[in-house]
Amino acid sequence: MTNPRKKKKVSVYLDPNIEKILADFAARRDQSQSMIAEAAIASFLSPDDAERREAIIARRLDQLDRRMSRTERDIGIAVETLAVFIRFWLTTTPALPEPAAQAAKAKVGERYEAFITALGRRLAQGPKLRQEISEDMAGANPSTEELNGP
């Protein structure tokens, strides 16, 4: 009488690359190729596995949604900050007298090009202004050791 719980032999055809990957993986794990193939097939056919994958994808989408929300918030803050600064600058900076205004208009193209060049260089290689500000703020806040002494 045969044991109904006995494993049955199944023949499958594998691409040579897949067979090599399976053999290498089995050798690294010091397990039989049959056991690894059985576990992979069971995992593939498991309904729980599909639910687990769906949960992982949902979690990743939630993370992306939170990141996008933070990015939108940060961009909104940056735009509002820039708008407030420009309004403040325009309302507090007096107009130049006529001779100085003409000289400024003559230099505007050159100054704008210098600004764009500096901005491009800064974006390409230098630290961001927000990093410098946070570093400056960290340096401005003395530690408790500095306040209390050694």
Feature tags:
single chain, 150 residues, mainly alpha, elongated, disordered C terminus, Ribbon-helix-helix CopG family protein
- Helix proportion range: over 70%
Tell me the β content. under 5%
The SS-based structural class is: mainly alpha
H/E order of the elements? HHHHHH
Low-confidence stretches: 144-150
What is the mean pLDDT?
A: 83
Care to count the β-strands? 0
Largest sheet: none
- Principal-axis shape equals elongated
What is the CA-based Rg, rounded? 33 Å
Q: In angstroms, what separates the terminal alpha carbons?
A: 84 Å
Count helical runs.
6
Explain how this protein is built.
- This is Ribbon-helix-helix CopG family protein.
- Residues 126-150 are annotated as: Disordered.
- The chain is mainly α and 150 residues long.
- Among the domains are: 16-45, no CATH class; 96-150, no CATH class.
- It has six helices and no strands.
- The N and C termini lie far apart (84 Å).
